[in-house]
Amino acid sequence: MTPAANIGPLVRLWGISASQLPSPTASSDDLAPFLVSILQEALPFIDSAAPRRSRCDDPSSAAAAATTAAATKNPWKPKGVKTSPADSAAPVEVSERVVGAGELETVVARALLNDETRKKTQSRLGNEVWACRRSTHADAAQKGTASWAEFVRCFRDEHAAAEDGFTPDVVATCEAISWDCGGVGPVDIAEEEDEEEDNVNSARQRWGRFTLKVVEMRHKVGRPVLKDRTFPVLQLTATVVPVAGEAGGEPREFVVVSIPVPDFGTKEASRLAREKGAQIAAYVSVERIRVLDARDQQGQNQGQNRTGKAGEIEWLMATASDAGGVLPSWVQNMAMPGIIWKDVPLFLKWIAGERLRKDAAMVGPRGGTEATENTTATSTGKSAIGEGGGVSAPKAAAASEEVADDTDVTNKIAAAFDAARETEAADFDARTGAVDLK
């Protein structure tokens, strides 16, 4: 599948409008096409960052050669490997992809949008810069890694609560709307389409256990001068489910897709975005978490050059964001690859503390002190632009050395942050009546 073919109008940084959301009382029949449309965009896009497996069992075959050739045309460009041995046993691979304005114009042109939506979308067209991280982890509830059950609980079932737990900058969360997806039956989606060979791979995945909700989160980015940022997103989760009569064990894979709803503050259901003076920001993300199998490991030997063994958990997440306000987008985009990887050690450190706290509760007061000491020393390197990652202005400034060794570029980043702070500081003074006593 060509890079241009795996992008669509829904999973985009421009987001969707509140008027495009399903009715809160939508039936399963009404929800199903909407859920499938999101999945059909999100799955090939995230798969392009880390193709899921070799297309055949024979590494010398033409299909295997095609897989290797496709890897060399991957639109995701490597941005290095990061490590944090104190908290994570796994290195984190970082990459970046630019979806150009021209590609996005094509998406808008072929999308079935009404005139008003088309005009609004075209007015926001520009390069969309995505950052991606990938890591693989032993399936174990121990220091430096996490078990499959913990990943499922924290990222599929309790996503907002977990983000609130291991993200120091989250100051408020709200689940504004939740749809009943219980009646939406499993759907089959082809794993990949081979345009060059004019056929569709017979391998398909069956997706079910859908959830759909609007979540609002507010992050602090430099109080009291810089305003908090509020992120309203439509969040979908879906899980690979077994096919009746198919050999093999229970599939272990799920995705989380977050799409901005920039005007959600106009809805009565909103609590955070509709607050007076709220600074609305946006992020879009696709997160894929799965257990690798033997075919995935074979793919490592066919030019894909990635870490991971059969039985390990792959954690893959890609995001694009816009903090809004006066912070230049080029600063955010340049800093993002140096920030996004920190989610991994942050989560693993937090989940280790959660285990200690649980153990302490089971053994009584004697274990309380140790648990408290370990769980309160939470790292604060997490970005503050939405659940899936992104760019926090103060964190990105501190990380400028990581994202640019060139002194001139680093100085430009620092200058841009200073200008942004001065602008928002002036706004803060105007709002509070502050007086310069110099």
Automatic annotation (TrEMBL):
Disordered: region residues: 50-88, 362-405
Biased composition (Low complexity): 62-72, 368-381, 392-401
Top-level taxonomic group: Eukaryota
InterPro entries xref list: DUF3074
Domain DUF3074 residues, every copy: 130-351
Endpoints of the signal sequence: none
Name of this protein: DUF3074 domain-containing protein
